[in-house]
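Progress report, Aim 2. The chain analyzed during this reporting quarter is listed below.
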Amino acid sequence: MTNNNIKEDERVVELQRKIGSDTYQLVSIFLLASIVYKQFILITPFSSYMTELIAFLGGSAYVVFKNIMIGNDINAYCVIGTKNPTIIKYLFSSLISSLTITTLLVINDYTRYQQNKERIFIIFLCMFSYWFLSHWGLNRLSKKRVDKIAKQYEDK
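Predicted structure tokens for the chain:
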């Protein structure tokens, strides 16, 4: 077997893709850990971890939109094209995410939020609506794309 045949073998290609995927996950975890460490432990200005944040958000956006464009259903808990996630799941995930972010922000700067408790509620509402709308919108976009691709294959 020549070297060219080994490179084109589907098992080798699959293994290379798995290694790349694992590497991306590790880099994302380290970027996120660096952001959290610099923001909450070292309490450094935004400019010191801006590069990590841009790299993390850019990579995450690329992965999500690339999966949507190729037709992968981003709902891991749903069967492709048959089952819609309920509004309860959107509300629950938005509630957990917004509570976590609000709690971290209050812990980070307790003195500022202690004097203005309405601000905590406003932050919670903004985060809740942002997470709900973005989660719902991305899942809707994913569902439309999956259905469009499924319809193309059914027509053939």
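The chain has a mean pLDDT of 82. Residues 13 and 113 are 52 Å apart (CA to CA). These observations will guide the mutagenesis work planned for the next reporting period.
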